[in-house]
Amino acid sequence: MLENINLAFQGVWSHKLRSFLTMLGIIIGIAAIITIVSTIKGTNEQIKQNLIGAGNNVVNVMLMQDNNEMDFSYTSVPDGVSMITPEMRDEIDKLDKVQESSLYHFRGWADGVYVGNSSFNGSVYGGDSHFLSVEGYVVNYGRGFIDSDFQTCRKVALIDAKTAQSLFQGLNPIGGTVEIKGEPFVVVGVVSQQSASEPVINSLSDYYMYSGNTSGTLIIPDACWPIVYRYDEPATVAVRATSTNDMTEAGNNVAKYLNENVIATEKVKYQAKDLLQQAADLQSLSEATNKQLLWIAAISLVVGGIGVMNIMLVSVTERTREIGLKIAIGAQQSRILWQFLTEAAVLTSLGGILGVACGIGLAYMLSSVMGTPVAISVGACAVAVAFSMVIGVVFGLMPAVKASKLNPIEALRRE
Amino acid sequence: MILQMRDICKDYPMGKTVTHVLKNVDLDVSEGDYLAIMGPSGSGKTTLMNLIGCLDVPTSGSYLLGEREITKCSGKELAEVRNKEIGFVFQSFHLLPKLTALDNVALPLLYGGVKKAERQERARAALETVGLADRLDHRPDQLSGGQCQRVAIARAIVGKPRLLLADEPTGALDSASGAQVMELFQQLHDSGSTIIMITHDQGIAHHADTIMTIKDGVLSGGGSDE
């Protein structure tokens, strides 16, 4: 076998130009496939990163009605839902795959928030003492929340840099006053998320998909929430999972716990807002279009395979005398068959390897020209090379059989 | 007796008619024989040579080589017989152009499943026997015609076959090289090899101990040349 491979390499090398031209079909086909697969994988990872954030691992478990988030700015609180107590939060921390959890209230599009005459249209959060650590906030200026803020319902607020910019226009926000529903809150700190999810926006549809995350955040202690919003609003639980892949499980564990302990109705349920699932849905959408391209690329592989078959037939004809001699001095048919199969497989495998290299290059080139994301899959490259080898075997079979069936008398006589 | 042919016939269909190329050929060869088979072109001598060499099977008759009945062998067994029992020397050498003399000689051993170290060892010894110990790494295009044929003879004897089969071994050589090659066959014969040589050249045939002639598919003669 090794002998055959060695011989095949010699054969390929001694006809460099011919071998290269024969491989060209395979090279183009494999390169196209690797480019497409790399782009699909890059897009998928980008979607996942956009939605989940870079390693934040936080999944939100919120009250849902018919799979829709409940927005308490206009819906009333449904019957049969009890409040989540701080003791329950401690219990949630002990659930499987949960690292830490936090209870919070929020308004996605805040109303009635002003500094002077500028209004604010970002999100307002009322978080408990764990909120900053679970959501990964760090204090950039001023201070964070302290225990007495919660105990005495001190009306203080933390804002992020975007809010600081839009409400205070470059002035020092610390000590400034924000009016929420007519109540004055003192800004005590500017915070930012350590690993913020910053979506990469490539198109208008991307913008609409992620736009909710893009306009500023304001955080107050949850103890103050009833002062400005509703008194008996059920809390949402932010859960930091032990790892990104555990997010779904952690979310489901928390939702199950809450549904058993605070829900006494069938109409509403706590559900994890499963970003992994959401990412998967978006991914399958973008994959569907690209997968059709794969089929077109596959056709060029078949064409390449036919080219290999053609050149192998020529090679068998050229080497008729050699084959005849080998049969005359006692080479078994199977040996001749394997020799030619190996040669075809070596030829196409080399083509596959070159194709993978070209494909990776092409993917990066496309990425720099058109801004498409790229992620190289080692598995896909291995499969591509293996597949091109299979093409060699399949299309090399006919010429190899022809060689092994040669009549040695005729073959030796041929000039 | 290492070779025994009885009533061998070989027919070739030519369109609608059938050509009888060999007609009831009987042939006996004992160990150590040096036999020449002579005949003009079209006499059937090449067909006979192909049958003896197990490249072809007869239409009818029986052919015993060693202990084996060749007419009952499968294709796989025939390949094995060609590899182990017969050494071919062709008119046009049939060396593989890209292999060195050593690799060309070692080729039958490769197909016989001999390990690499032993292959090289035996191929080197065979090349020494034909007087080309200093040409191991030369490729055929770097050798003269006579040297090429001696490499081919080394390839034929490397597997220590029962029978050496030569088809016009001097046909492509000038007379000086031809004489060297015939000298080599004589040496091999002296050291005990069994040789069958096919030729149309009277001068070459006379090197053999026994000469038989074939004409129109009928083999005759067998009288000693001495």
Describe what you observe in this structure:
The complex is a heterodimer of chains A (415) and B (226). By secondary structure, chain A is of the alpha+beta class. Chain A folds into two domains: 2-49 and 288-413, no CATH class; 58-241, no CATH class. Chain A contains 14 helices and 13 strands. In chain A, a hairpin with a 2-residue loop joins strand 9 and strand 10 (183-193). The model of chain A has no long low-confidence stretch (mean pLDDT 85). Chain B is α/β, with parallel strands linked by helices. In chain B, 34% of the residues lie in helices and 29% in strands. In chain B, the strands form two sheets. Chain B has a six-stranded mixed beta sheet with strand order 6-7-8-3-9-10. A four-stranded antiparallel beta sheet of chain B has the order 2-1-4-5, covered by helices on one side. The radius of gyration of chain B is 17 Å and the shape is globular. The chains are: A alpha+beta (415), B alpha/beta (226). At the A-B interface, helix 1, helix 11 and helix 14 of A face helix 2 and helix 3 of B.
Keywords:
heterodimer, A: 415 residues, alpha+beta, 14 helices, B: 226 residues, alpha/beta, 7 helices, globular
Label the overall shape of chain A.
elongated
Rg on CA atoms of chain A, Å: 33 Å
- Largest beta-sheet details of chain A: 13 strands, mixed
Helix content of chain A: 40-55%
Backbone structural class of chain A: alpha+beta
Global mean pLDDT of chain B: 91
Strand content of chain A: 15-25%
**Strand-residue proportion of chain B:** 25-35%
Give, in order, the helices and strands of chain B.
EEEHEEHEHHHEHEHEE
Extended strand count of chain B: 10
Oligomer: heterodimer
| Low-confidence runs of at least 5 consecutive residues of chain B | none
Structural class of chain B, please? alpha/beta
Which parts of chain A are unreliable, with pLDDT below 50 for 5 consecutive residues or more?
Answer: none
**Largest protein interface?**
A-B, 19 and 23 residues
Cα end-to-end separation of chain A: 29 Å
Radius of gyration of chain B: 17 Å
Strand order of the largest sheet of chain B: 6-7-8-3-9-10
